[in-house]
Amino acid sequence: MKGRRIGITALVPPEVVYACGCRALDLNNLVPESMVRPEDKLCAWSAVWRELLLRREVEVDALVVVAGGDCYTSLVDAQRVELAGIPAHHFIYPFSGDIRLMREQVEALAEFLGELEHEVMDEVAELKAMALRVHEMRSRGELGSRDGFLIEVSASDLMGSPARYREALENLGEVDVSYEHRIALLGVPPIYSDFHEVLAELGMHVVFDEMPYEFIRHTGRSMAEVARSYARYTFALHLRRRLEFLRKQLRRHRAEAAVHFHQYACHHSLEEPLLRGLCRELRIPYLSIEADLPGRTPEQVRLRLEAFAERLGEES
Known about the structure:
The chain is of the alpha/beta class.
């Protein structure tokens, strides 16, 4: 599969994809700007990229679907794509976090994609180290949250090219961000394309995006290191592990409030009471936003965010 374009449907180690001489395309990153409105869907994320592939509006040579541990609705949508003739591989995160089982998964992925070139893993690890430094800039208020978010969320596929991702990282310049409140954005990335801008307009600077941060903190320079790191991917583990991780990160990033963004018909929505309870424990205000279709932030959601910002101003 040398040089072939591989569609991925959740966090699939780009270290392995690129080390096998392929190019990654995170199909989820296409969804917020998409105008596709699927007739049959549960979660709009998987239904939109499914339709993009079935209509051949997006071309991939093969598909790697995360079939266990993160997103479950994508499993059926990916099978529909596979039945339409696109080769697919199923990648599964072990719920237990077992490193041996994770090693089996990354090796099976490599076998599906092609022969490994380990020096490419070194390059990807270096890029993710650069992305972590960008994350710290955003946390210190030296970079807008939208720019930082784009860097972090794009680490899933390195913008289709390590060289392109490196250029994006190197072209970022330090700025002085003015804001009133430090916000943690929990859950899945917003399906609303302008969500970070709306928060910024209301004086809320996102210092921690939960899932995009996962994209940049996991890496490795060998298959063993990749397996060890990705076995700690908290979205795929017992909720106890995820809550412990978030408790540390909310404190480390000095988050003053949390917005939980979750998706209609997603099993992660069932985690909402536990995340609310965590924020209550940490005594930080919490807002839950459930979304459905992609697009710009709806007026009703904007009004709720405005009220939340006013509440933060009253409590500060």
